[in-house]
């Protein structure tokens, strides 16, 4: 007879808590829109990750890197997931690889960058995985699209995205309504 309190593995996995995981996408090499589109598809195809919001596409002046670093396209994707942060980072890096990320110098042009910004309120400080992303709070190219899809968003340890944005120069961030990420 089954023990009255027995719980099977499926039931347990169904009980893993949902967290909000937010990703930043960036590309400044090759077909930039296609690269972002590939990243979005990669996230949509990730089991146990549900894409709930996708920002508009923004054209942004490169921050850092060589003087002639081309402009980026950036966007932010909000998901709900039962996956652990490490698994989410692995997926992000695999998606970068799948889209043939090429990079020759630090902050130089890259086909695709997928950063994990937050996973719920988790705080992790390891070299391979820092949460919240250690530079998200100071990057207008991240915060402008994030605020667009979630005006109430906040970054653990740094505060509301809306407040952080108020102190940033957003002049290098331009919404490109002519460029659309398809569903
Ligand atoms: N929250 C995070 N999101 C993505 N990568 C992270 C995160 N925290 C740590 N990393 C590590 O950073 C590495 C990526 O470093 P990389 O030099 O590509 O950074 P970058 O994308 O060029 O710059 P930045 O992190 O400033 O956007 C990954 O291999 C990953 O292990
Ligand atoms: N505008 C812009 N600048 C950057 C970006 C980016 O995505 N957009 N990513 C960087 C490193 O990840 C460095 N600089």
UniProtKB/TrEMBL annotation:
UniProt domain 7,8-dihydro-6-hydroxymethylpterin-pyrophosphokinase: residue ranges: 23-151
Catalytic activity: 6-hydroxymethyl-7,8-dihydropterin + ATP = (7,8-dihydropterin-6-yl)methyl diphosphate + AMP + H(+)
GO molecular function annotation: 2-amino-4-hydroxy-6-hydroxymethyldihydropteridine diphosphokinase activity; ATP binding; kinase activity
A biological process term (GO) from this entry: tetrahydrofolate biosynthetic process
Source organism (scientific name): Enemella evansiae
PANTHER family membership: 2-AMINO-4-HYDROXY-6-HYDROXYMETHYLDIHYDROPTERIDINE PYROPHOSPHOKINASE (PTHR43071)
Designated name of the protein: 2-amino-4-hydroxy-6-hydroxymethyldihydropteridine diphosphokinase
Keywords for the protein's UniProt record, in alphabetical order: ATP-binding, Folate biosynthesis, Kinase, Nucleotide-binding, Transferase
Entry EC number(s): 2.7.6.3
SUPFAM superfamilies, alphabetized: 6-hydroxymethyl-7,8-dihydropterin pyrophosphokinase, HPPK
Pathway: Cofactor biosynthesis; tetrahydrofolate biosynthesis; 2-amino-4-hydroxy-6-hydroxymethyl-7,8-dihydropteridine diphosphate from 7,8-dihydroneopterin triphosphate: step 4/4
């Amino acid at each position: 007879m089954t023990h009255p309190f027995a719980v099977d593995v499926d039931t347990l996995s169904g009980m893993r808590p949902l967290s909000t995981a937010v990703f930043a996408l960036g590309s400044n090499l090759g077909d930039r829109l296609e690269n972002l589109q590939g990243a979005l598809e990669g996230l949509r195809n990730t089991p146990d990750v549900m894409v709930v919001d996708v920002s508009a596409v923004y054209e942004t002046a490169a921050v850092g890197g060589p003087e002639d670093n081309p402009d980026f396209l950036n966007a932010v994707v909000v998901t709900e997931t039962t996956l652990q942060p490490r698994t989410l980072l692995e997926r992000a890096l695999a998606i970068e690889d799948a889209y043939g990320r090429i990079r020759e110098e630090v902050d130089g042009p890259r086909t695709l960058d997928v950063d994990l910004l937050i996973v719920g309120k988790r705080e992790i400080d390891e070299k391979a995985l820092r949460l919240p992303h250690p530079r998200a709070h100071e990057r207008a190219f991240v915060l402008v699209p994030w605020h667009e899809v979630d005006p109430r968003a906040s970054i653990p340890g740094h505060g509301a995205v809306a407040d952080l944005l108020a102190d940033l120069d957003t002049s290098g961030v331009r919404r490109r309504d002519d460029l659309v990420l398809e569903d």
